[in-house]
Amino acid sequence: MVLSRTRNVTLALAAFLAYGVAQDAKPQKQAKDQAEADLINSIPKATAPAEQLKLLDQWTKSYPQTEFGPERLQQYLIVYQALNRPRDAFNTATDILKTDPNYFEGLRAILAGAYIPMASAAELEGAEKVANRMLTDSNTVFADANKPAGYTAAQWAAVQPAMKIFAQRTIGSIYLIRKDNPRAEVELTKALQMDPTQAQISQMLGSAILAQNKTSPLKQPLAIFQYARAASYTGPGSLDAENRQKLLAFVTRAYETYHGSKDGLDQALELAKTNALPPPDFAIKDIAAIAAEKAAAQAAIDAANPMLAFWRTIKTGLTGDGADGFWGGLMGTGIPGSNVPGGKFKGKIISMTPELRPKELVLAVEKPDVGDVTLKISDGPLPGKMEAGSELDFEGTAMAYT
Questions:
Q1: What is the rounded distance in angstroms from the CA atom of residue 367 to the CA atom of residue 352?
Q2: Cα separation of 397 and 32, whole Å?
Q3: CA-CA-CA-CA torsion for 199, 203, 208, 211, nearest 10 degrees?
Q4: Max CA pair span of the chain
Q5: CB atoms < 10 A from the CB of 142, how many?
Q6: What is the rounded distance in angstroms from the CA atom of residue 205 to the CA atom of residue 258?
Q7: Is the pTM of this model over 0.85?
Q8: Which of 171, 326, 336, 355 is least buried, going by the fewest C-beta atoms within 10 A?
Q9: Residues 130, 167: contact at Cβ < 8 Å?
Q10: Chain segment 117-143, per-residue pLDDT in tens
């Protein structure tokens, strides 16, 4: 009677573990006694994972040694996953792989160890080991003999490339957790090359590069590009609309902070939308580089026109925060003096008072139609008349400013 019931036990256990255990022609296992058989057969009848866990614990306590040890561990793994207990699933999978190193659900549970909140060093190490094995020995891991029951041949064939991508992403995640950002950058770039559609990998890669801002500031445009990719890409594997919007706001701030304006941002977003990785010549000029270019251009202009350069020096001094102090040093002095070759400014006439034999003239120095300086003639009017727009050379004593 017990043996008959035991045969039923074997079939029942195989049924409720069907998708986790590859069936073969090995001799059927037997329960120790009728009580163990009844306990085993009660597990698939319990529909709630929590109830199944109670029965598994009762089985383990009552029968620590059983012919169904591997199957029991596999069922523990299934239940822990259903209960969202990844650390227990990781530990159980570790035990399973000791005797069945190619058990797919166990390998996948170990790989998930990298995503356990506050993952331990051992969990990260275990996940990295499995991830590397999936990448370097994938033909063994995904051999036909290891195909789980319930998978078709086509499904099993599709699992291998998908899991290799996930394994590569996991390695990148592990180094990101370890704060080894240069290594994380390398590994996540590999993952993105394997599957350019994974916007979450782009976001992670952006984070790894951004974290190097102090040691590798020249890499920051690459970080901005990866965040722009995650924010703008809308195809398969993209982030949801809400997260894309949040990232777009972040990218906009980061770009403006780095570049000094939004100029070129739309083009960068459009480029990132259609490219997972930037082209070799991709670059964003930072504020310092832009300022240096402007300074160099201005220096060239000043060298070509020292009169206008000195005029701008005066204008800047009289409009800056220390204007009163600057004017104190300028008032009553003769300008431009020795600051300009030839000792004179040039200006175009805006107006003259009176128009004939003027005693007062308003001249434009910097722009041809904006009055910059008023000349008051102290030793008599100028002879004759000139047309507005005509150019004069002048020098004088600084008497007042507005």
A1: 18
A2: 115
A3: 170
A4: 136
A5: 21
A6: 18
A7: no
A8: 355
A9: yes
A10: 999 999 999 999 999 999 999 999 999
